[in-house]
Amino acid sequence: MKELISIQSRLNAPKGRTNQFGHFRYRSAEDILAAVKPILREEGCFITLTDEVREVGQPATTVTENQKTGTIQRTSSTRIYIRATATITNAAGDTLSVSAWAREEPSRAGMDAAQVTGAASSYARKYALCGLLAIDNEDDPDTYAPQNGGGHGAQNGAAPAQQQAQQQAYATTGDAERDAMLNRALQQVAQARTKEDLVAIYTSFTALQPLPAFKSAMTARRKALGIRNAADKQTA
Known about the structure:
The protein is α+β, with helices and mostly antiparallel strands. It has helices at residues 2-10, 29-43, 113-132, 160-173, 176-191, 195-204, 212-224, and strands spanning 17-19, 24-26, 46-56, 61-65, 72-76, 79-89, 95-103.
């Protein structure tokens, strides 16, 4: 599709948003669409976005009973993913599609079930659009790796020591899935409103508990909320 070559070369979708908690710049799916629509009109093309819910994993269910409350808890080994597909169509009816995936969290502080699904959809759609339109996300918030310059760092309010700790924590993960998990956890920490929220987040991300960036974020949020109980190891 020759139109896509022109669209990709002409498109400029800068990171015009700033995450005040992580001190990084980012773009959303909406930003990409706003930037590309005028070019699509000129090229006689349009983009459609679709979502599909996929259950991944073995459909095994574990049932546990709480003897104190008499309640039964059911847990499944499967995970729910949103598969977003971005499709571009030209005037001749030729199409090209790119898909991306995002996993739903079982729960997120301050969000109902519909919002959790919507967040996963937005995440997957952004990366489907990035793949379709050849947008480079090397310096993307999902890596949670603040860079020197480019609008990151101390000029956005992050202390140098905090930057260094975050960079070291990222460098020691060496795993893209774990890095994405870290970013999701940090976003949830930033949205936490109570000590109970922080405890729930801490226990939900056991794999991240040793990481300095995760521990630092938990401590900073606890202090910001005025939770002064330093003896509480789950929020320290």
